[in-house]
């Protein structure tokens, strides 16, 4: 198997939305076996579902969390919570997600232990924030640290009240009470919100997120659980407060915590924003915090919490002593007493417990019982009583939990009545019993009880979802225009020449393209019925418009930014695909009114239109895309083509110097035939600099500033005067890259070896270059000034380009490894 990095231990660090988790999953899937530890049960489940889809079956994929175990006998890939990673298994790949949580007082010792001990025999990958870097240098010096830049921009949007939040916003609060209060306010102000909290079951959470993703509600209220990699289409993150209770005190969020949560705004290459609900006071961002979050600068960690990962089970005393042992490294700090250790200490004081733990095996069993999480958040004393009763059964007779006790407790929880808080409490209790049921040695029939517990939790989850929706989403349907009648199917809907939709003399709204907009004067309670009335009676018009779009001439379709428009109406959006020449074209949600067959035909028409436009307007990019899919092209050429596509057809040569050096003559000839110039300073396609092609390229790259059409030289402060637009900045001016190459060739044609020479100044003068600009350019081209007779043109001497540091050559048959070296080497 090809190597991703030079070291078997790789640390991939960076802010949110950098694709770290996606990279780890891809790396794991490339090995014969693997395991990844995640910070959340919800995230482990999400990735498990993704890996099952990748592998095509769950026969070899396992999910292991405290409350859920899907572990086929021949499982080779394991998706786990960090606490549940089966470290005794030997696997080729091991990954640890959000490793900076080693600094968390409550769970940090678990992540630190995995950081130190969890290893794959072929590859180990540690994922986390940039703040983890000094800890890695101290604790895992052999790890190769690779940085990952964020795919999109994260910017501060200021403080906005709930009533003014943009659509697709997530509001983050730090207690269940605050979450419910915000969701209730959004129901009144904006029609409703989905709710996501770490304590929800995956089923409830997925149902709530599906409601948000489908556009049934435009707002999501969540705890900071969304900061841990859960994938949702959020454009803006608003903080309801900037303080939280961490188990001991109420404190302000750290910059790292703020950045982790704010970073959920924006997805892949779509930019995101963040802000607060308060303009001033303790719940408003300071300017320093804003700058740090936007720049992804987080303070480096100075310590991680540690606890012995392999404690001594010789006796209870030895177990407690090993768990309270002090770390030897100066960057490690003894973890605060966790609830499992607190429960162990309490139980060890009981005479009956001490009488039963006289062997290492029984000490180990006691510690396993103490590991039962306090899902109900009862506190150490009540929780220790529950654990004590559990251990009492585990330490007597056959060592199994009594069938009747388990059955009675599950039966008590099998009750779908009650409000949101009551149902959430039952789910928390059910999680305790699910945890017990998944310990195969604690029950006589664990498979039966695991299934029974899962069924109850699913029923409670469905009830909680229904209760959340009823409480926080406005489902009222009022009689539409009472004087007309309530049966929407009988309403005589008509469409005017400007798209105005009406029922008899009553205006419903306007039909623009395929989107029906309710008349603004309609009361909020009437809007859903208005929509239903229109959609039931507008089917014929939708079909007619759909066919017109399918039959549309090329000129009727255009690209504006990332939106494909037909007759001036947005019908689809470009989303990131394999590369800039092959984006994904997602139909606008308004086209959901079409029948599936018509939608498929519209999708095909737009795909065909875009491919034809690439072929006509950006031919070079289309040909580069063909290279990336040509197995005969060779790894360096495919990697260079990918890099050029990622940069929109223009790349500084230094950024790909080792790839250029690796190109053989046929590869160089193929690039020339495509229309790519390997220049002295830049690799570019001259055809992309022409005004029409440059305009399309700007649309595809979402570039805001446009340089003046046909300009050879621009003032440095002018719009578009930078490399991404095809202009190389040189002091007070920026010169188009193809003209930079003309000057470079003219200079080399004029020089004679390394003797001083004076190039013809006419070329630079005709372009409008100042003497200062020409001097800077000549220096970048590898020339230095030489003394000459006074009053004569400036003379130059060739000294050669300074070569960039040459990275270690990756395997030549692995384009992914070549790209990795290009980005991170």
Automatic annotation (TrEMBL):
Keywords: ATP-binding, Helicase, Hydrolase, Nucleotide-binding. The keyword Cytoplasm does not apply. Signal peptide: none annotated. It holds the Pfam family Helicase_C. Residues 157-306 form the Helicase C-terminal domain. SUPFAM superfamilies: P-loop containing nucleoside triphosphate hydrolases (SSF52540). InterPro entries: DEXQc_SUV3, Helicase_C-like, P-loop_NTPase, RNA-DNA_Helicase. It comes from the Bacteria. One of its GO terms (molecular function) is RNA helicase activity. Its EC number is 3.6.4.13. Coiled coil: none annotated. This is ATP-dependent RNA helicase SUPV3L1/SUV3. It comes from Sphingomonas kyeonggiensis. The lineage of its organism: Bacteria, Pseudomonadati, Pseudomonadota, Alphaproteobacteria, Sphingomonadales.
């Amino acid at each position: 198997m090809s190597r991703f990095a030079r070291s078997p231990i790789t640390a991939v660090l960076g802010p949110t939305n950098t694709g770290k988790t996606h990279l780890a999953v891809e790396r794991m899937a490339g090995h014969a076996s693997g395991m990844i530890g995640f910070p959340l049960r919800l995230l482990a489940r999400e990735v498990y579902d993704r890996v099952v889809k990748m592998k095509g079956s769950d026969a070899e994929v396992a999910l292991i969390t405290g409350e859920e175990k899907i572990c086929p006998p021949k499982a080779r890939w394991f998706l786990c919570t960090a606490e549940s990673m089966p470290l005794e298994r030997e696997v080729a790949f091991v990954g640890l997600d959000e490793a900076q949580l080693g600094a968390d007082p409550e769970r940090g010792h678990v992540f630190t232990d995995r950081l130190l001990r969890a290893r794959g025999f072929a590859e180990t990958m540690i994922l986390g924030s940039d703040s983890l870097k000094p800890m890695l240098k101290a604790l895992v010096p052999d790890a190769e640290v690779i940085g990952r830049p964020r795919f999109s921009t994260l910017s501060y949007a200021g403080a906005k009240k709930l009533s003014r939040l943009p659509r697709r916003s997530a509001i983050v609060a730090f207690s269940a009470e605050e979450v419910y209060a915000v969701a209730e306010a959004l129901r009144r102000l904006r029609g409703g919100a989905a709710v996501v909290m770490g304590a929800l079951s995956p089923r409830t959470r997925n149902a709530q997120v599906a409601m948000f993703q489908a556009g049934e509600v435009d707002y999501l209220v969540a705890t900071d659980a969304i900061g841990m990699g859960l994938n949702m289409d959020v454009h803006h993150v608003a903080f309801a407060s900037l303080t939280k209770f961490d188990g001991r005190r109420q404190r302000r969020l750290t910059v790292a915590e703020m950045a982790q949560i704010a970073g959920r705004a924006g997805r892949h290459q779509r930019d995101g924003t963040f802000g607060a609900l308060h303009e001033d006071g303790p719940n408003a961002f300071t300017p320093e915090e804003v700058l740090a979050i936007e720049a992804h600068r987080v303070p480096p960690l100075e310590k991680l919490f540690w606890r012995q990962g392999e404690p001594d089970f010789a006796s209870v005393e030895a177990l407690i002593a090993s768990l309270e042992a002090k770390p030897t490294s100066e960057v490690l700090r003894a973890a605060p007493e966790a609830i499992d250790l607190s429960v162990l200490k309490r139980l060890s004081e009981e005479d009956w417990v001490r009488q039963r733990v006289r062997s290492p095996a029984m000490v180990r069993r006691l510690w396993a019982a103490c590991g039962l999480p306090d899902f109900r958040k009862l506190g150490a004393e009540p929780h220790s009583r529950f654990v004590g009763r559990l251990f009492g059964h585990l330490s007597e007779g056959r060592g199994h939990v009594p069938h009747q006790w388990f059955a009675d407790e599950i039966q008590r929880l099998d009750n779908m009545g009650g409000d949101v808080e009551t149902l959430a409490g039952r789910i928390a209790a059910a999680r305790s019993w699910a945890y017990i049921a998944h310990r195969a040695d604690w029950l006589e029939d664990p498979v039966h009880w695991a299934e029974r517990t899962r069924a109850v939790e699913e029923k409670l989850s469905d009830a909680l979802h229904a209760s959340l929706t009823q409480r926080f989403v406005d489902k009222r349907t009022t009689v539409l225009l009472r004087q007309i009648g309530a049966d929407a199917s009988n309403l005589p809907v008509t469409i005017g020449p400007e798209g105005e939709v009406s029922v008899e003399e009553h205006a419903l709204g306007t039909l623009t393209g395929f989107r029906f907009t309710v008349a603004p004067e309609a009361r909020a309670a009437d809007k859903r019925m208005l929509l239903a009335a229109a959609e039931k009676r507008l089917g014929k018009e939708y079909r007619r418009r759909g066919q017109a779009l399918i039959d549309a001439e090329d000129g009727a379709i255009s690209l504006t930014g990332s939106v494909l428009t037909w007759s001036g109406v947005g019908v689809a959006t470009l989303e990131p695909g394999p590369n800039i020449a092959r984006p994904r074209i997602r139909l606008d949600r308004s086209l959901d009114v079409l029948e599936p067959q018509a939608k498929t035909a519209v999708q095909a028409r737009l795909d065909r239109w875009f491919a034809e436009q690439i072929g006509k307007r950006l031919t070079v990019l289309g040909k580069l895309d063909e290279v990336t899919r040509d197995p005969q092209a060779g790894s360096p050429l495919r990697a260079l083509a990918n890099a050029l596509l990622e940069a929109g057809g223009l790349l500084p040569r230094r950024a790909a110097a080792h790839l250029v050096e690796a190109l053989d003559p046929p590869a160089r000839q193929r690039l020339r035939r495509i229309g790519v110039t390997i220049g002295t300073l830049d690799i570019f396609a001259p055809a992309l600099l022409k005004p029409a092609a440059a305009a399309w390229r700007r649309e595809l790259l979402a570039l805001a500033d446009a340089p003046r059409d046909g300009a050879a030289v621009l003032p440095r402060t002018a719009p578009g005067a930078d490399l991404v637009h095809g202009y190389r900045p040189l002091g007070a001016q920026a010169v188009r890259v193809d003209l930079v190459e003309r000057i470079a060739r003219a200079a080399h044609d004029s020089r004679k070896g390394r003797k001083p020479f004076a190039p013809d100044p006419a070329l630079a003068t005709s372009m409008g270059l100042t003497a200062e600009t020409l001097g800077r350019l000549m220096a970048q081209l590898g020339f230095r000034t030489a003394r000459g007779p006074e009053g004569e043109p400036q003379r130059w001497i060739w000294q050669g380009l300074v070569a960039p540091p040459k990275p270690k050559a990756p395997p030549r048959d692995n384009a992914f490894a070549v790209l990795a070296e290009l980005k991170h080497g």
